[in-house]
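Suppose a colleague, Dr. K., hands you the sequence of a protein chain of 248 amino acids and asks what its three-dimensional shape might be. Before reaching for any lab equipment, you can write down a predicted structure in token form. Begin with the sequence itself:
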Amino acid sequence: MPLGVTKSSADRKPQMTSNTSPTFSTLGRSPSIGPPAYTTDDLLAARYQKFSKWVHLMRVAIAAITFIASIAIIACVGASLRAYAISRLEPEWILPLWPLNVDLRPSHAILGCGIAVALLSLAYLAVAFVPMRQRLHNTNLVSTVLSSLCLCAALFTIIFASVVTNNLAYNTYSGTLNSWTCRWYGFDSVAPSNFTKICNDGMAALDLVIVLVLIEVLAVGATAWGWWVEMRLKKRGVDGAKSEVELV
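The predicted structure, expressed as tokens, is then:
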């Protein structure tokens, strides 16, 4: 082609420039078709969030179980004290069913423990379902206080009612409701008709207090787990607002 001769517009080849409009095959697609990039911290934070939900459910279940057990304790001890009040005779009566000075302190201690644990369990159940900010942190605080109080109450009741008072009562004539009625166990032909029931109710209440101790130890462990999860979430940068929506 001679020099100085230019190509016609029909002979020119189209060239793609940087501002060329996208083709139909690229419309509606994102520039990247790969999965979103999740870091290790994001995956660990999601894992700890799942742990916090299990902590919440576990503590609610423990509170419900302790409430049911404490109601059973109140029912057993209340029935024993009521039977004693009905069958107790004044000293001037001949052949009374009970000694002159029955030690009711163990029964009162067990009854007080049942009432205290029932109220504390209800308090945690109420707090656990109240909408609040930073729910995990607040329920950790409440669970720490209430589980510690329940455990101390149950341990004191076991030591006082089983080890101290009952051991002293068995060495004396008067005794407690349990010690006096359980002495007649096996002598149904000569024992009063309600003594066997009073003995069984009293022993059941004491056994339930021992169960409460084991459950409250588990509650303390669940509380420690909750603090550990909260610490891990703070380390991963999960704030209070996010924990309120996602964690519980």
